[in-house]
Write a structure and sequence with these properties.
7-stranded mixed β-sheet; binds dioxothiomolybdenum(VI) ion
């Protein structure tokens, strides 16, 4: 057991992760070999609300089955601040897909077969899963994610709107959408005596260790979380998910290592969705396009178990200075799974409202939408530079912005743009560096690499600071026994961990560390001294072609231009930017999780019916950046890049669709069935 752990942490260090991934030697959570591994399969609730009275297993299935756990026989768990994690503890059913039992068997096939044969004795109750802007259950929450005030008010919005010569009043709707990382959420759990070992696909080994510790009544250091390689997460792996708790329960009861891998369909109910929003946005402006008032109000949903509020109106507080500005959120608690983190929570849907409404304003005034934004951003030179250089690189023509003019055979061609922003965050972390001799160094920090290239970039930062080639750096990450690191989320990973790595390397080189061969640096104090609300900015440009025959929308060109401080690795940065842009394009055109009001279930809960962009959907895509270090943020001068790519991309595509067709799609996604009836 111990040797297995040492191997996992000490690795045979894959200095270059590319070859490890291509050759298959890079291990993901469910791939760690275990003796006597058993397999857990979840029995999901078939109803959205009700009571579970009993679980009956078919005796014919019992041979390979080691245990069937449900609340009637499962070990007691301590309370967690995430009630979705305290599984199998009560008879209450709060959402469809909720784990009601876990079947553990000696083979995966037996576990699945037995789970399907399990009989549930359920008393169903009436449920409500429909978000409506006039839902009587809507209320103003105490805060919105990540802990911001639900409302803000400056000046007198109503008075300013009443006298504004130009106004826009529009409702934008974004549907529920789901995170679909390539690697599903997966855990292998094993108890070494009273210590819990988890191979778990997550964005935050320390956080998962602390959460599982709380639930199992253990100090965090008795929980060892390994997350060496991760196949994407987008926020859905930012916190522990039920698969980790179920695997740990199963292992406790059977005395064997137990694996729980979520099938794609189960991910739709167990890993969280981006909540749908209904946004009303009202804008007042002068005839020259100077903004005088904005009111941005969002209605959204959460679950019965937890208040998680998608903060779609928040971005409007930071984007343009407006003397009269009001923002607010209302939420209704429904019988649905809890919404969760998804790339740019708040900003991604919120900028659909704001940046599409600004496009409507520009059209009314007859002003180039790029110029409209420049006119309202004089205090934000980096954003203005993104707008100008993005427009130039794209070949943007602001001269004639009347819609529906360019035709190429059956295709209507149009261009659109939108602004983007994302907070530049940093969180406390600790790194350790050791001199191994011969100019070789080991750098250790419990960071998580989602597939973004975090391991590579941290090694580069260390190599720069130590003045050695990057091959001399042995990076150890993805393990909760390493020095504490913040979550791979909020676009803060590289800034937070890189700062700690820089500090440790400088301490070693300067000899200020007590040991000549090892130094540790904790950024907590420096991070706490940071002040102010800092942001990255960007501009998105899109060209679309809409077929007048089929209504099909093709995005023929997509460009993102960013101010993200110093870009540390152009190759991995570009991949983050264009990944976000494509995800935003998917949000504009394809992605929609359809909830059946009668059954309370996501109808299209697989990749055959839930559509995300494929290679064929991405034609010409490019990302560029100003590359101006921002020395106030951290020693590298970098800002986060993981999320800003998704922020303005949907609005740019939607604005281009309007330019091509004269139709404003205000209810996402812009599918051909919505567009076709309006086409010439
Ligand atoms: Mo991202 S939603 O902050 O992991």
């Amino acid at each position: 057991m111990t040797s297995m752990l040492t191997r996992a942490v000490g690795a045979p260090v894959a200095r270059l992760e590319g070859p490890a991934k291509v050759s298959g030697s890079a291990r993901y959570a469910a791939e760690y070999p275990q003796d006597h591994l058993a397999y857990g399969w979840i029995v999901p609730s078939p109803v959205a609300r009700g009571r579970l009275d009993a679980v009956l297993i078919d005796p014919a299935e019992e041979e390979d089955v080691l245990a069937v756990l449900w609340y009637g026989n499962a070990p007691h768990l301590e309370k967690s601040d995430d009630p979705e994690l305290t599984v199998l503890q009560s008879d209450e059913i709060r959402y469809r897909g909720q784990p009601l039992a876990l079947v553990i068997a000696t083979t995966l096939e037996a576990a699945r077969r037995s789970a399907q044969a399990v009989q549930l004795d359920i008393a169903g109750e009436e449920h409500d899963v429909e978000l409506r802007a006039d839902h009587p259950g809507l209320y103003t929450p105490s805060s919105v994610v990540p802990g911001l005030p639900a409302e803000s008010a400056d000046g007198d919005v109503e008075a300013a709107l009443a006298v504004a010569p130009v106004t826009v009043d529009a409702v934008y709707e974004t549907p529920a959408v789901h995170n679909n990382p390539m690697e599903p959420h997966a855990t292998i759990a094993r108890w070494d005596g009273q210590d819990l070992v988890l191979y778990d696909s997550n964005q935050h080994p320390h956080g998962v260790a602390a959460t599982l510790g709380t639930i199992f009544g253990l100090p965090a250091e008795r929980v060892h979380v390994v997350a060496e390689h991760i196949g994407g997460g987008f926020g859905s792996k930012g916190t522990a998910r039920p698969n980790a708790v179920l695997a740990a329960l199963g292992s406790w009861v059977t005395g064997r290592p137990v694996q729980v891998v979520l099938p794609r369909q189960a991910m739709f109910s167990l890993v969280g969705h981006r909540a749908p929003t209904v946004q009303r946005i009202r804008i007042g402006a002068t005839e020259d396009g100077v903004l005088t008032a904005i009111d941005h109000q969002t209605c959204t949903q959460s679950s019965r178990l937890l208040e998680f509020v998608e903060s779609a109106s928040v971005v409007t507080r930071d984007m343009y200075p407006v003397p009269n500005l009001r923002t607010g959120h209302q939420v209704v608690r429904l019988d649905v799974p809890t919404p969760r983190w998804m790339r740019a929570p708040g900003e991604a849907p919120g900028m659909v409202g704001l940046e599409c409404a600004l496009d409507e304003l520009a059209d009314q005034i007859g002003l180039d939408p790029v110029e409209l934004r420049i006119r309202n951003s004089s205090a934000n030179p980096r954003y203005v530079e993104c707008l100008r250089s993005g427009a130039e690189r794209f070949g943007w023509s602001g001269r004639d912005r009347r819609a529906g003019q360019r035709r190429d055979g059956e295709w209507l061609v149009g261009t659109g743009m939108a602004g983007a922003t994302y907070p530049a965050l940093v969180m406390p972390s600790t790194a350790r560096v050791r001199a191994l001799g011969d100019d070789e160094y080991e750098v250790a920090i419990a960071a998580a690499d989602l597939g973004t290239g975090a391991r590579t970039v941290l090694a580069q930062i260390a190599a720069d600071e130590l003045g050695v080639p990057v091959e001399r750096i042995h990076m150890l990450i993805g393990d909760s026994t390493l020095p504490q690191a913040s979550v791979a989320g909020g676009s803060s990973g590289t800034a937070s961990w890189g700062w700690a790595v820089t500090g440790a390397c400088r301490a070693l080189r300067s000899g200020t560390s007590p040991s000549p061969v090892e130094a540790t640096f904790d950024t907590t104090e420096s991070v706490q001294q940071q002040q102010g609300n800092k942001h990255a900015f960007g501009a998105h440009f899109a060209e679309v072609r809409v077929s007048t025959v089929t209504g099909e929308i093709r995005v023929s060109r997509l460009l993102g231009m960013y101010d993200a401080g110093r870009v540390l690795n152009p190759r991995t940065a570009r991949s983050q930017f264009i990944g976000g842009m494509i995800m935003g394009m998917g949000m504009a055109l394809h992605e929609e999780s359809v909830l059946d009001p009668a059954q309370g279930t996501w109808v299209n809960h697989d990749l055959a019916e839930y559509h995300i962009p494929t290679h064929a959907d991405v034609e010409q895509i490019d990302a560029a950046w100003l590359d101006t270090p921002d020395p106030d943020l951290n020693p590298m001068g970098s800002k986060g890049i993981g999320e800003i790519g998704i922020v303005g991309s949907p609005a740019a595509v939607l604005n281009a669709i309007w330019h091509a067709t004269t139709t404003r799609i205000r209810h996402l996604p812009a599918r051909l069935d919505k567009l076709l009836p309006t086409l010439p």
